[in-house]
Amino acid sequence: MATPVVEANGARIPLVGLGTWTLRGRDCSRLVEQAIRIGYRHIDTAQMYDNEREVGEGVRASGKRSEVFVTTKIIPQNLAPADLIRTTKESLARLRLTEVDLLLIHWPNPRIPLAETIGALCKMKTDGYARHIGVSNFTVALMDEAVALSSEPLVCNQIECHPYLDQSVVIAAASGHGMAVTAYSPIARGDAKGDALLTRIGGKYNKSAPQVCLRWLVQQGIVVIPRTSKVERLEENLAIFDFALTEAEMNEIAALGGRKRRLVDWAFSPKWD
Fold it and tell me: Does 199 fall in a domain?
């Protein structure tokens, strides 16, 4: 079964992808190849992950490059225009691709004017190095500013998103701009596995708590990119399109967001919404 997609400002982004943060070496390339073989059509990497070469090897080994949506992200130290342009080309060389499907600013950098960064990002699209462009870890204010500055449509904001962190304000703002939201850490780095509510709901559908968690997100049209190093988990994370949660169940899970449990928060993070 083809993975459903979300459409955003001209992009068609598969709703489930493989996150590759912490994956390295041959294990990374093999897992990427295996993911594509079993039906994944979205692979997410970044300059910061130091695995673009291995991700590219896995994509090529699958023999299905034309079917796979590949995302990479520019490290915040590389957001000055000359650095962004140079390192985007370096990322493509490591991936051994002529273009990526989506190029994102990984984190905002207040030391570099956003107008300059967005201008260079747009150039990467118009020059053919990226089919689509977007942002990651942007607040509502930063997203509004980026959209106003961009001469090309921004298609995505990739953010930490799971039931324990209420991101409804950012999601609504992205939607208002026609942008998709991609959820990283969508099962809260494994915390969903032991959740009593998700386990109870999963029992009704013969699904695991992480599957319920992922279903809750994709049912809202949010793209998920769970990371795993286990082949059996690859299959589990993809098997979320053969059931649907009720409105009451969706609301019950949303209520978990009152815990405001943010897992990714660095010294250089923006002031979150």
Answer: no
